[in-house]
Specification:
Blueprint lengths: L1 E2 L2 E3 L2 E3 L6 E5 L6 E6 L3 H14 L3 H4 L2 H17 L1 H12 L3 H21 L15 E9 L2 E5 L5 H14 L3 E5 L6 H13 L6 E3 L4 H10 L3 E7 L2 H13 L3 E5 L5 E4 L5 H13 L11 E5 L3 H12 L20 H16 L3 E4 L3 E2 L9 E2 L2 E4 L6 H4 L6 E7 L2 H9 L3 E2 L1 E5 L3 H10 L4 E4 L14 E2 L2 E2 L4 H6 L2 E9 L13
Parallel strand pairs: 1-5, 7-8, 7-10, 8-9, 10-11, 12-13, 12-20, 13-18, 17-18, 20-21
Antiparallel strand pairs: 2-3, 4-5, 6-24, 11-23, 14-17, 15-16, 19-22
Bound molecules: nicotinamide-adenine-dinucleotide.
């Protein structure tokens, strides 16, 4: 069993506490690695190292060379994808095949932002002042803290780290206490790629012990956080106290809306992908299915046909379609929502049970579950479960779908299934969500901004938009006048 150490200045550093905590395999329930338990002293070491690195060889490197380093890291992630995916799947219980795809895709973020590094341009701004030349330049903000959840550790870290490094910043990464091993394996690749010491640092531990001191640390300029809204709120409050910027990618309860004119075969597959891939443990899960009244019964039948024989089991085994819930507290939460839905009067038409015994390891499994008869004021319609639970609601027409779709505090994403171009455009305009998918669900890319409206967060990840979160813009005024005007009178 591996015992890991914090990663600071390209070195493995014992935790100040001398304590280690368990990395648990959600399938077997066994401890499979030991992780350093961080505290404020470890955070200070890492943040200071990252601040010092902002003044070192990293800052003197040309943007082109910086981009080349990112590119090299991407290539190493790709060639080590199997190993990285195995440790991440072992930590979070997601299907190995899915995690492998995610890790390979994470490499592309480093390619994209590597290419972008020397294309960040300021502007020459025509202005109204005589004989003064004005231009803008973009500069790195400094040290960026990345704080990530357990569901997709490497990919969500790549979403933050690649644009932050592209912009010339340095990083202290704090992965979820439930899924930290892959971050240390990634750190090894930073060394192999040739990043200078201090550019990427990793401290593991709990939100209170590591996350909070990291957000508060004076050397940290931006916090890039993905997680639940409770943690997100605390990060935002704390960041505000220190006038720090933060990006927050929080939860969702996204509506997946199927109209009667849709290709129902595609829509049914899209709805299943939306909720049951990754066992519903994704922020963008399409966990509220809105069905036009006339197709309700037929569509639910289609879902049952697709899902009733889903293969549940060991996520490392080929052919398995649903893995375990990633953590025991999350398992308990998902199970509690099944009880909540039943007590609210929703009809359980699929699943609703846990699985244990032979082939189910420690028994942290919840069957893909569908509730019909849900109305939008029920808790099962309003609250994020983060598990394989689908709530089905009915709507009458476009405006009814918009009303129900938007009647929620979240605004991360929405899906719309229709053959009508007019309807698709109307819905994409009216839905209050950071992403709207028309006749598909879950597409995301390094090229494209992703983020939430309302309680789903602040800021964007992906595309050129993401780099702006990690840059300061400076206006430079250069006088071309040989003589200063009267110094006592300011001219406008
Ligand atoms: P979480 O908020 O409990 O933890 C996320 C991270 O924040 C962890 O590393 C944790 O240690 C840290 N943390 C917790 N409290 C903190 C604090 N006060 N200060 C600083 N750091 C703190 O979330 P989770 O349970 O690990 O993940 C599930 C949640 O993440 C869900 O709500 C889900 O919707 C959300 N999520 C959002 C996205 C997105 O892109 N919008 C993607 C994946 C997950």
């Amino acid at each position: 069993m591996n015992t890991y150490q914090h990663f600071i200045k390209n070195e493995w550093v014992e935790p100040d506490s001398g304590q280690y905590f368990d990395a648990l395999d959600p399938f077997s329930g066994e401890t499979w690695a030991k992780l350093p338990q961080g505290n404020a002293i470890d955070v200070d070491r890492a943040a200071t190292a990252a601040a010092v690195a902002m003044e070192g060889p990293w800052s003197k490197m040309s943007a082109t060379d910086r981009g080349m380093l990112l590119y090299r890291l991407g290539a190493l992630i790709e060639s080590n994808a199997q190993k990285l995916a195995e440790v991440e799947s072992r930590d979070n219980g997601k299907l190995l095949s899915e995690v492998l795809g995610q890790v390979r895709y994470a490499a592309k973020y480093f390619y994209y932002y590597g290419g972008l590094a020397d294309k960040i341009q300021g502007a020459v701004i025509p202005n109204d002042k005589p004989k003064v030349f004005n231009y803008t330049r973009y500069e790195p903000v400094g040290v960026v803290a990345t704080i990530t959840p357990w569901n997709s550790s490497l990919l969500l870290t790549a979403w933050k780290v690649a644009p932050a490094l592209c912009a010339g910043n340095t990083i202290v990464a704090k992965p979820s206490e439930h899924t930290s091993v892959s971050m240390f394996e990634l750190a090894k690749l930073f060394v192999e790629a040739g990043f200078p010491p201090g550019v990427f640092n990793v401290i593991t531990g709990f939100g209170k012990d590591v996350g909070e001191p990291l957000v508060a640390h004076p050397a940290v300029s931006v916090v890039a956080f993905t997680g639940g809204d409770e943690g997100g709120r605390r990060v935002a409050v704390q960041a505000a106290q220190h006038f720090k910027r933060c990006t927050l990618e929080l939860g969702g309860k996204s509506p997946n809306i199927v109209f009667d004119d849709a290709d129902l075969t595609n829509a049914a597959n899209g709805v299943v992908t939306g909720i049951f891939s990754a066992g519903g443990q994704t922020c963008m899960a399409g966990s509220r299915l809105l069905l036009q009244e006339s197709i309700h019964d037929e569509f639910v039948e289609r879902l049952l046909t697709i899902c009733k024989d889903a293969k549940i089991g060991n996520p490392a085994e080929p052919g398995v379609q649903v893995g375990p819930v990633a953590t025991k507290p999350q398992f308990d939460k998902v199970v509690s929502y099944i009880d909540i839905a039943k007590s609210e009067g929703a009809n359980c038409v699929l699943g609703g049970k846990t699985r244990s015994g032979n082939g189910y390891g420690a028994g942290q499994f919840v069957e893909p579950t569908i509730f019909t008869g849900v109305n939008n004021s029920m808790r099962i319609a309003q609250e994020e479960v983060f598990g394989p639970i689908l709530s089905v609601l009915k709507f009458k027409d476009e405006d009814d779908a918009v009303r129900i779709g938007n009647d929620i505090r979240f605004g991360l994403a929405a899906g719309v299934w229709t053959k009508s171009l007019h309807r698709a455009m109307y819905m994409s305009e009216k839905l209050r969500a950071g992403t709207v998918w028309i006749n598909n669900y879950r597409s995301t890319s390094f090229t494209t901004p992703f983020g939430g409206f309302k309680d789903s967060g602040l800021g964007r990840e992906g595309g050129v938009e993401a780099v702006k979160e990690f840059l300061e813009v400076k206006s430079v005024w250069v006088s071309t006048d040989l003589q200063m005007p009267d110094p006592f009178i300011r001219k406008y």
